[in-house]
Amino acid sequence: MQENLYNLAFERSILSSIVFEPAQFDELSTALNVDDFYLPAHQDIFNAMMKLLQKDQPIDEEFIKKELVSIKKFDEQVMLEILSANPISNTKAYVEEIKDKSLKRHLLTLTTEIKRVTVEEELPSAEVIDIVEKKLYDITQDNQTSDFKDSPQMTFDTMEYIKEMKARGNSVLVGVDTGFNELNKMTTGFGKGDLVIIAARPAMGKTSFVLNTVNSIISQGKGVAFFSLEMPAEQLMLRLLSIQTSIPLQKLRVGDMSDDQWTSLGGAIDKMNSAKLFVDDQGSININQLRSKLRKLKNQHPEIEIAVIDYLQIMQGIGNQDRHLQVSEISRGLKMLARELNIPIVALSQLNRGLEARNDKRPMLSDIRESGSIEQDADIILFVYRDDVYLYKEEKEREKAAKAEGKEFIPTYIEKEEEDAEIIIGKQRNGPTGHVKLVFQKKLTRFVEPHPRVIETSYESIDTKSANMEVGNTPEPSSNDTVSMPTL
Predict the structure, then answer these.
(1) CATH number belonging to the domain at 2-152, selected among 1.10.260.40, 3.90.550.10, 1.10.860.10, 2.30.30.100
(2) 332, 377 in Cβ contact below 8 A?
(3) pTM reported for the whole predicted model
(4) Are 243 and 253 in contact (CB under 8 A)?
C-alpha cells in the first residue's frame, strides 16, 4: 500500500535533472512543492535549491551541499544516489506522477483529520463539513504552506512583488479595477484577500454602484461570482444590460424600444453570453453555505477575480446566537475566505436610519448596522451618498404638509436625470480616506465619471509670451490671464 504513495526513483530523477540542467528549475519550482517529495532528504535538497534560486546562486552539487551543511541536513548517501540517477529531458510525466502520489498522501492525511474532528473532538456536522471542504480545497489548489515564512522568503517575495508593479509601468491600479479612474487612484483597486464593504441607506444606489464594477471586470474577460440575496438574477442582468446599452431600465423591463435600441440590445446579449459572470440568487444562505459554494466555483473557474454579496445583513447566522454575534461570525468568515481564495470579497451593507436625524447626512463608520465587527474586519469601507435623495424626500414631505393644511405648495426642488454622487472612503487599511465625485444617471441606474466642464478663457498675445519664455523658466500668470482646464 505504501508503495502507491511515493516513487523514490522518480524523485531522484527529477532532482538529478535539476543538478545537471539547472535551467529547468524555473519551471519545476512552480510545478512542485517541497512536500510533494516523500523522502525528507529529498525535501531538504529541493528546499535548498529554492533558497539558492532566491539568492541568485548556482544550483549545483557544491552549492547545494554548502547550503545543507550550514543547516546540518546534508546526507552524502542520498546526494550520491541522486547524482547516480539518470537525468531526464522530458520531466512532465515524472512531475505528474510525483504530484499524484503527493495528492494521495494528503488525502490519506485528510481521512485521519476527519476521524479526529468527528469522533475525538465531537464537532457539529456543519463545522466538520466546513473543515473538510477547506482542507480539500487547499489540497487541490496546492495550497500547502508552512506555519511561518522566514525573513529571506518574505524579502524575496516582496522584491518580486515590487518588480511586478514596476513592470506594469508604475500603474496606479494594483488590485481589481473598481470601474472608476479616480477611485482606482485612491484605492489602487480592490486588493487580493481584501474584504470591501460598500454601505448606504436604501435607494442610494449601492447595488447599482457595485454593478458598475462588475460590468468593468467582465468587460475585461475576468470572472465574477455574485451572491444576490435581494433580487433575482434576471433583474441583475437587466441592470447590466442597461449599463452597457444606455437604454433606460424601464424601457428594457417592458420591451418598449426603438429598432436601434433592439439592435444595441442584441449586441450586448451576445457579449453577455460569453461573460464570466456567475450569479447565485438563492436568497437564503449562511456563511458555511457561501464558503462551500464559492470554493467549489473558484476551483472550477480559476478566472474568478472577485466575489460580491448583496447584501450582508440578509445573510443567515448559524445557531441561536444574538444577531450581532452572528454578523460578527459572518464578517470574520468573509475576511478569512477572501484571504483563503486570494480574491477581494465585496459585501454590501445597510446603514442605521439614525443618520437621517443629522443635519449632515453623510455616513460615518458608526452608522453601519452591527458596525463593530464589520468595521474591524473590513480592509476598505466605501459609502455611497447622493444628497438629492434627501432633497427629494424633504420636498415630498413639504408637499404633503402643505396639502394637509390646505395651503398652496410651491416646488423648490427640480428632479434631475443626472444627480451628483459621492463615494466616501470611510476606511482604507493601506491607503488614504477621502471622497470621489461621481454622477448618477437615474434612468440607467448607472454611475459615471463627472463630465469635464470647460471654462472659457482669454489669453493676451500667447504666441508672444511663448516666444519670450526661456528654457526652464515659467512666468507667473498675470491677473488678466485665465487658464482653460477641466473642472470636476
Answers:
(1) 1.10.860.10
(2) yes
(3) 0.64
(4) no
Strand, helix or coil for residue 470: coil
Rounded-to-integer distance, Cα 345 and Cα 333, Å = 11
The rounded distance, in Å, linking the Cα atoms of 453 and 248 is: 25
Mean pLDDT per 10-residue interval, the chain, length 488 residues: 78 89 80 86 90 83 90 90 84 85 84 77 74 72 56 77 68 82 90 92 90 93 91 90 91 89 91 91 81 86 92 74 79 90 92 84 84 83 92 85 83 84 92 92 89 45 39 41 37
| DSSP β-bridge partners for residue 434 | 425
In which region does residue 348 sit, left (phi positive, over 0), alpha (psi from -120 to 50) or beta (all else)? Answer: beta
Query: 287-300 and 125-140 are packed helices; what angle lies between their axes, rounded to 10 degrees?
Result: 20
What is the rounded CA–CA span in Å between residue 433 and residue 379? 12
pLDDT at 472: 41
Q: What CATH number labels 174-385+416-448?
A: 3.40.50.300
**Strands 418-428, 380-385: parallel, antiparallel or unpaired by DSSP?**
antiparallel
Percentage helix, strand, coil, to 5, in the chain?
55, 15, 35
